[in-house]
Amino acid sequence: MKHGIATISTIPMRQAPGHRSEMVSQLLFGETYEILTTKNNWLQIKCTLDGYEGWIDASQHTPMLEKDFKVTTLENIGVAIDLFSSATSTDKSVTLVTGSSLPFYDGINFRVGKEKFIYNGQAVMSDQIRTVNMLEKVALRYINAPYLWGGRSPLGIDCSGFTQVLYKCIGTWLPRDAYQQAEAGKVVNFAEEAVLGDLAFFHNEEGKITHVGMILKDKKIIHSSGRVRIDNFDHFGIFDAETKKYSHQLKIIKRML
Predict the structure, then answer these.
(1) Residue 63's domain spans which residues?
(2) Helices in the chain by DSSP H: which ranges?
(3) pTM, whole model, 2 decimals?
(4) What pLDDT digit, counting tens, does each position of 209-226 carry?
């Protein structure tokens, strides 16, 4: 099995092999993957983080040796928590976004294969104690970041990409899509019992889960809908103070920690 690692800021993952195909997700710097098959100049991959599958342009692929792939685990990486930061090696500089993975991070340096980088930003290490207060701190940095279907970066992010990256920052690995995330965690029976860091899931007219957001204090929720925003939250769902209407109907609340 061949493997790879993202060595640029973000790599679009597409539903089919072609630039005109829908973007279903993104790889962030340092995230690894398996190559499932190839077609022309495209690779079908499976993400190590969440098992998500999609196609990437072969020109954005960086090969990874089997032995390096096996020792680059989710437990020995640092995670960048600045919206934007940079890392430099002897011959290049790379812009990193929140949620980027820093393999073998020691607090200053990390390594991708044989290439060593100096990281110039804030990050959390795998052995650090991580709390819901950190979730809130990182989440609030995204305010007004634009919504982008399939996005996982501050330059464009969808609802489940947002919650997935937030939880990655505290060492909790969530699936990619909202309906998949709703299968994790423990049920919170009443909206009044929801606490900071809980995830609330919302459904469409057919009852299918189509949206997710993270509960804040004081009956508020932060979520990506048009942009990353804070709205009121109760047992009916998300109330938009601007339109004076409920924008999303509550399906279930889950506690992930």
Answers:
(1) 3-124
(2) 66-71, 132-140, 159-168, 178-181
(3) 0.95
(4) 999 999 999 999 999 999
